């Protein structure tokens, strides 16, 4: 197990692109998602409803969503 870890670390040390892929890019993604949710709960977001069956239930759901 230890030999495998050393082999991977040596590989990453010699391949800078792979080192970037396993360290910097995940760090950037974590930062991106945490900044999106930093403000808290998302409210009053625009949505689109495609009512293909035009049933009474789907119309009621559309009305309910438009009021809230």
UniProtKB/TrEMBL annotation:
InterPro entries: ABC2_TM. The keyword Membrane applies. The chain crosses the membrane at residues 21-40. Residues 16-65 form the ABC-2 type transporter transmembrane domain. GO terms for cellular component: membrane. Pfam families: ABC2_membrane_3. It is found in: Membrane. The keyword Ribonucleoprotein does not apply. Keywords: Membrane, Transmembrane, Transmembrane helix. It is a multi-pass membrane protein. GO terms for molecular function: ABC-type transporter activity. This is ABC transporter permease. It comes from Acinetobacter baumannii.
């Amino acid at each position: 197990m230890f030999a495998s870890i050393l082999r991977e670390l040596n590989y990453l040390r010699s391949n800078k692109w792979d080192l970037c892929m396993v360290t910097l890019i995940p760090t950037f993604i974590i930062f991106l998602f945490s900044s999106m949710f930093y403000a808290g709960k998302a409210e009053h977001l625009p949505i689109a409803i495609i009512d293909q069956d035009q049933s009474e239930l789907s119309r009621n759901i559309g009305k309910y969503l438009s009021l809230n």
